[in-house]
Write a structure and sequence with these properties.
Elements: E1 2-6, H1 11-21, E2 27-32, H2 35-44, E3 49-53, H3 61-72, E4 78-81, H4 91-123, E5 127-132, H5 145-165, E6 170-175
Parallel strand pairs: 1-2, 1-4, 2-3, 4-5, 5-6
Length: 179
């Protein structure tokens, strides 16, 4: 099974890599911005792993990830869309710019990557997409409106994608970690 994990250099992404690495026959593709952490993690995991250091908000990022997967694996069984960040601040403090940059990473980058990899996931079906959202998509807090909005968008889109991709053999799941 080939599993691609974004945001793999720390936190939930790194934990997911360790968990998937325990499954017999699993090969991992680790994606994040921090090359040194990816290289170190790939070397320590008990499963074969390749890695790609890329900022998913860059215009060519989806194509670079797709090219890496096609070159090293040729198929994709599971995409874990985990990359994300939160820049705290009230709307008055951060305004539209804070919302824009949060949406760009937490929502737009996930959609763009999924769009690029979806043909490969369909070809590899049965396959899966796991989108990592947050309970903040349902319960917002002061100073975290941009983050909540981005995760709400991801949650809503995931619900729709679940039904759209079921006939194609691509299961779409949502993970909503708590505070």
């Amino acid at each position: 099974m080939i599993v691609l994990i974004t945001g793999a250099s720390s936190g939930i992404g790194e934990a997911a890599a360790w968990r998937f690495a325990r499954e017999p026959g699993t090969e991992l593709v680790l994606v994040a911005r921090r090359e040194d952490r990816l290289r170190e993690l790939a070397a320590r995991l008990p499963a074969p792993a390749t890695w790609l250091s890329v900022d998913l908000t860059e215009p060519d990022a989806p194509e670079r990830v797709l090219a890496h997967v096609e070159e090293h694996c040729g198929r994709l069984d599971c995409l874990v869309n985990n990359a994300g960040a939160a820049w705290r601040g009230t709307f008055e403090e951060g305004g539209w710019e804070n919302v824009r940059r949060t949406m760009k990473l937490n929502f737009d980058a996930q959609l763009r990557l999924t769009e690029a990899l979806l043909p490969l996931l369909r070809k590899s079906a049965p396959s899966s997409i796991v989108n990592v959202s947050s309970t903040a998509s349902r319960i917002s807090r002061p100073g975290a409106g941009a983050y909540s909005a981005s995760k709400y968008a991801l949650t809503g889109w995931t619900d729709s994608l679940f039904f759209e991709e079921r006939p194609n053999g691509v299961h779409v799941g949502l993970v909503m970690p708590g505070f």
